[in-house]
Write a structure and sequence with these properties.
This protein has about 220 residues and is mostly beta strands. Helices cover about 15% and strands about 35% of the residues. It has 4 helices and 13 strands. Strands 2, 4, 5, 6, 7, 10, 11 and 12 form an 8-stranded mixed sheet that branches. Strands 3-1-8-9-13 form a 5-stranded antiparallel sheet, with no helix packed on it. The longest helix has 9 residues. The two termini are about 20 Å apart.
Length: about 220
């Protein structure tokens, strides 16, 4: 799974990398320890082009009676998103991209959990495959998202058996626009990502209240 990630960049770099037309982020700043229920940058397609907007992490299906389900839906397994009730409608109509610089996973070492940052060697931006959903309650409306995961590639399976689906530039276009189920399914197949690396980080990242550059410093 992917339960914590980081996005270390600036608004201009985000807009350029993801070819943003509509910029709906207010006072964007780097997030060194992005956690569920936070409002985080998401790229989705509108009639006018790509929109960059902050949505809450933890997908709440349109049919949910309340928002509590969002705590259980921070990730969507690629093997079941086409059939699982919480995700199947969003998979067909509401796919998105989740910008990131890296993500964290924990590995048991010496009887303790050691966090690792998994990122590109040059610390560039990544695009995770995501789904988003709009929910309306009696007193509030909410737009939320989830990160799609797949089986870990050879690069990271020594740390964890799952990883986010990481999309190339061309894959991003297909993920946002394609209606062909075979094309979409092929994007979800585990594959090695050029330049992806892993390194242990300070254990303070395990506490979501810690959010500063130390969270991504090598241990």
């Amino acid at each position: 799974m992917c339960g914590r990630y980081n996005i270390v960049t600036d608004a201009e770099a985000l807009a350029e990398f993801f070819e943003i037309v509509i910029f709906e982020l207010q006072d964007f700043h780097s997030n060194y320890n992005a956690a569920p229920t936070q409002y985080l940058p998401v790229v989705r397609l509108t009639d006018a082009g790509r929109e960059l907007i902050a949505l809450r992490w933890g997908l709440v299906p349109f049919w949910a009676k309340d928002t509590k389900i969002g705590y259980k839906t921070i990730n969507a397994r690629s093997e079941t998103i086409a059939t699982k009730p919480a995700f199947r409608a969003a998979y067909i109509k509401r796919r998105c991209l989740v910008p990131a610089s890296g993500y964290f996973e924990w590995k048991v070492e010496g009887g303790a959990k050691q966090p690792y940052n998994i990122c590109l060697e040059e610390r560039g931006l990544l695009a995770f495959a995501g789904l988003w959903e709009h929910w309306e309650g009696e007193k509030e409306t909410l737009d939320t998202f989830t990160i799609v995961t797949t089986a870990a590639s050879d690069q990271v399976k020594h740390i964890h058996d799952r990883m986010p689906v990481i999309l190339s530039e061309q894959d991003c276009r297909l993920w946002l626009t394609s209606d062909d189920q075979d094309t979409l399914s092929n994007l979800l197949i585990p594959r090695d990502i050029p330049g992806l690396t892993t390194y242990p980080v300070n254990k303070r990242v395990s506490n979501a209240r810690n959010n500063d550059p130390e969270c991504i410093q090598p241990a």
